[in-house]
User: Fold this.
Amino acid sequence: MKITEKAVTTRFTIVLLLTLAWQMCFVHPVLAREKTLTAQQYLARMVTTYKSLNSYSSQVQLEVRIKGQPPIPKMQGELQWKKPYFAAIRYRQSGESGRAVFDGKHLWAVSSLHKGSYVRQPTSTTLGTMRVLTRAGLVGNGIGVLLTHPESVHLVATPKSLSLGTKTTLKGAPVVTVISQTGQGQERLTLTFSIGQKDFLLHKITTEQLTNGQVLTMHETYSQIKMNLRLPADVFKFIPPHGAKQIEKFP
Assistant:
């Protein structure tokens, strides 16, 4: 079979194109995949994601350990939040179960440890969500900050304090750890953010605080996360238990 000049030229072109494609994928990997983000960029993407949320829900778990002291029972709960300031949580911890709601004007709360009474407190819109979370022990630099004032994360995790940790999976979700370390000597604070590689949501935050030789460690974990879902209005309504007495705070 006679090989024409046109056939040779065609084959040469195909080989050249295949060679270029091979080089793009293996010799020049930057051209084949997205550039790896820095720790600061991951944190910024997380902040931007939470600023854009209209609603949020997740299962939450809190573990607290104080070195040298007996373990504190885990808290587990279900958190729901809606812009601009509505929040609700149901939680369980050891022998206690409870619910807290902020409806835009008042904090409402009930606890199985204080049957026959409920709390009703006037609360500002700037503090409502944080006070709901505080009822369940969520007082760290995690979800409360991100839902209410996400920009303030940068006040704690400053650019100079950041480093990029490992990539792993957390309950099936691929995450990357961003570590913030501040302080020195006997006063140190380490925050480890586990940020979703795909959704840029916070899946876990570990707080380790050293104060005067005492080490406090808190793990906040968030799973079954849903964004911008439709939450019925009655999620943020509180109906006092029949016959219960209204009080300003639990004893």
About this structure: Residues 1-33 have pLDDT under 50 and may be disordered. The first strand starts at residue 55 and ends at 66. Helices lie at 5-27, 29-32, 39-51, 128-135, 143-148, 153-156.
